[in-house]
Specification:
With 385 residues, the protein is an alpha/beta fold. It is built from 15 helices and 6 strands.
Length: 385
């Protein structure tokens, strides 16, 4: 193994964190409690330092006081990262700030547990994908598929296939990318290959679900519209009646359904991945206009997720009124390995009253997606490519 690829691997994770805080620890960073306007102290100064260090950010004075200038800079960052824009530093925002502060070459990248996360990982995935070494979603998480693609690239480039991205690997990536015309990464192309085998099935989906409900077919019927599909449905609390109704709807459509109720979205995403779900639909209460979100990262937008979000919103609007469609980088969308959407509703009482109608609408959207995409290609897996 080449020495310069491994010399920077720390003996313990704390040794990898420079004093300026630019390099994150492995896994999620810890935040004692959320903070926002009016806060003061070293933690605010650290926030201001991180915001000022970003290439596309305006300087944020290191006053140690969370003022309006800091709030505007933070909200700009949250918007750029497809997060909820609330001007408050919570766990997800802090994690995103930590990840944004590390650049390709700042540290060696390799498969470890917890998995490495950061903008450097996303940049590596983007480079590999552009060269045709598909590493799955470009999500900034260095998992098994990214590690395998890295080794494959190294072997093809005449490097030691050790799975460590260090100076030599980065130099080889940059050299091979330089003469290439700008184009779509293979991650986008591979995902789109799963779309549209039957592109115009939407008009018949609601009728198919209605037929299932009326004649009592169960998930044992091979002719049911979602027969053989695996679907995860989840909520962290407050919308259990809606998710239960959605589960019954999808069971009637022939699907194998896994209900998820863990309060952690990351835990739910991990359970959906382990289940091998084809689709993951989650719901939550939030005091904001109804919306449906799909995964959108720095280098990658889930086309299948966006298609599912558009159809879900379209089906929901007759029930709940206008529904916003938006790309977001929420943990459950980023960490799930299949098309996923998050449905946000603002009225628990109304959701309970119309649970059946909401479930039927979401179920119709899911079946529309599953009927219109090819999940059987031997070159693809259940996970989005």
């Amino acid at each position: 193994m080449p020495d310069d690829e491994h010399a920077a691997i720390p003996a313990d994770e704390h040794a990898a964190i420079p004093a300026d805080g630019r390099q994150p620890r492995r896994g999620r960073s810890r935040l004692t409690r959320p903070f926002g306007i009016g806060s003061s102290g070293d933690h605010v100064r650290d926030l201001q330092r991180r915001l000022s260090a970003l290439a596309d950010s305006e300087p944020c004075p290191l006053t140690g006081v969370f003022d309006e200038t800091t709030r505007r800079a933070l909200e700009s960052f949250q918007n750029d990262r497809a997060m909820d824009v609330d001007g408050i530093v919570g766990t997800d925002t802090w994690q995103a700030l930590v990840e944004a502060g590390v650049r390709l070459g700042d540290r060696p990248l390799y498969l470890t547990s917890p998995q490495l996360r950061g903008d450097d990982v996303a940049d590596l995935q983007q480079m590999l994908s552009t060269l045709g070494f598909g590493s799955g979603r470009i999500d900034g998480i260095l998992g098994n598929r990214t590690a395998l693609s890295l080794v494959e690239f190294q072997v093809n480039a005449g490097l030691s296939g050790d799975g460590v991205c260090g100076p030599r690997t980065i130099t080889a990536l940059a050299r091979l990318l330089r003469p290439l015309p700008r184009g779509r990464a293979v991650a986008h192309i591979q995902e789109r290959r799963r779309m549209g085998v039957r592109a115009d099935v939407g008009d018949s989906v609601a009728g198919a679900l209605a037929d299932v409900a009326s004649d009592g077919r169960s998930n044992g019927d091979p002719d049911a519209p979602a027969a053989g599909r695996r679907i995860a449905v989840g909520e962290p609390g407050g919308l259990g009646i809606v998710v239960a109704a959605l589960r019954r709807c999808l069971l009637r459509a022939g699907a194998d359904v896994l209900p998820l109720c863990h309060p952690s979205w990351s835990a739910q995403a991990a359970q959906a991945n382990e289940f091998g779900a084809d689709v993951y639909v989650a719901c939550e209460l939030r005091p904001a206009p109804p919306s449906v979100s799909y995964f959108k990262g720095r280098h990658f937008t889930s086309e299948l997720g966006r298609r599912l979000a558009d159809k879900t919103a379209e089906c929901l609007e007759p029930v709940v009124g206008p529904v916003e469609r938006c790309g977001r980088s929420f943990p459950m969308l980023r960490e799930s390995q299949m098309p996923a959407v998050l449905v946000r509703l603002d009225d628990a009482a109304a959701a309970a009253e119309h649970a059946r109608s909401i479930a039927d609408a979401a179920g119709a959207a899911v079946v529309d997606l599953l009927t219109g995409v090819d999940l059987t290609s031997p070159s693809d897996s259940r996970a989005e490519l």
